[in-house]
Amino acid sequence: MVLESTARALLHRLAVEQAESRVPSLVAALVRGGGPVWFGARGRTGLEGRDGSGPTERTRYRLGSITKSMVAVLVMRLRDEGVLDLLDPLDKHVPGTPVGDLTIAQLLSHTGGLTAEPPGSWWERTPGAPAAGLLGDLGPEVARHRPGRRFHYSNLGYGLLGELVARKRGVGWARAVREEILEPLGMGAVTERAEEPYAAGFAVHPWADVLLPEPEHDAGGMAPAGQLWAGAADLARWAAFLAGDGGGVLRPATLAEMREPAAVEDGPSWDRGYGLGLQLARHESRMLAGHTGSMPGFLATVWTDPADGVGVLFMANTTSGVRGRLLFDLLDILAEHEPPLPAEWRPSPVDEDLLDLAGPWYWGPSAYALRPLPGRGLSLSPISGVGRASRFVPQADGTWLGLDGYYAGETLRVERHPGGVHISLNTFIFTREPYDPSAPIPGGVDPEGWR
Asked: 4-337 adopts what CATH topology?
């Protein structure tokens, strides 16, 4: 748990938001090291005189589009099991739609060009048709942009992904979420509809301090886009999951893949983007992954920073008003008051052949450092700090595969030649001396040497 002084600063920021933004009730939590370290709450969950209780960690709020990230995890589980490929067209698994040529990856990343909302009445405020009815209402007009052209958020796309999951699992999407994600992660209190204890959803009058109850209903075929309800305790567990504690539900590499930017939102310099079912945001030196949520009567957001295992969330029972800066401020307060301690340095054994490779290497005249990593991994980075850096993991054939950066997916080979040793990396040659004439430098080395 955080220090008392930190808790006071965090609660003050939360109280300011609830008061200034006129939010009926507002809860927030911070996660660090795989577990919750702070919870705060302000306001009342119902109308005064009827249910004027304050919220707790167990009070359920509607998650809205945070539901999408859970559906996306199901899709990625199907991919990891070999049931589908992200490059598969939708028609291969949900045949008969007018957008069957869109790929699963495009639907996950909102790059398929689909309309934002499904046909018919405003789905967030009216009961929805079952999936069969939703699919039957689709026509060619739901395609608004060339697939792959741009990021265009689509609730409809996640209605389609929910139906894909249901067909592949043979059960409804919500049951699949419960059995494969919620129960294994200890999030059994998450529900598909409002169940006690829960906060009532309200709209706050823009010019007066009065409330209007918002409707709650079953969204039918659109439910995968925003149906689930949860308390802060369960959403904190979800934050820990997104920050890297997979709990056996998803491979760490797959979760990292979901956090990779697939698209960015419009703007002169991107500070928001989207991966595979996860929203992305930049905040100073942080690259955050998570999701926002909005339904009539409710707002919610969860952000995580896998780099230091921290997560933050809020939930509110208001249609609009909570400022997006709130969670960034809570993260900043935690970092200012209780900065994380770096892990202790400890010596780690290195195989002798890798120790021989450690040290400076040269790509032409540019100096790089090669450092062994645990498990026979390698790190190659420019000594000046300017250039291409990547980490590599060992392969069974004696090569190394790039994990990130420019060389992600590329093969690194250590090769011996009559004059010594060199590194071959995607046609580039790294040598122990700048332009070593004994190595097979592409284009050769001037025979008169340096002068």
From this structure: Beta-lactamase (3.40.710)
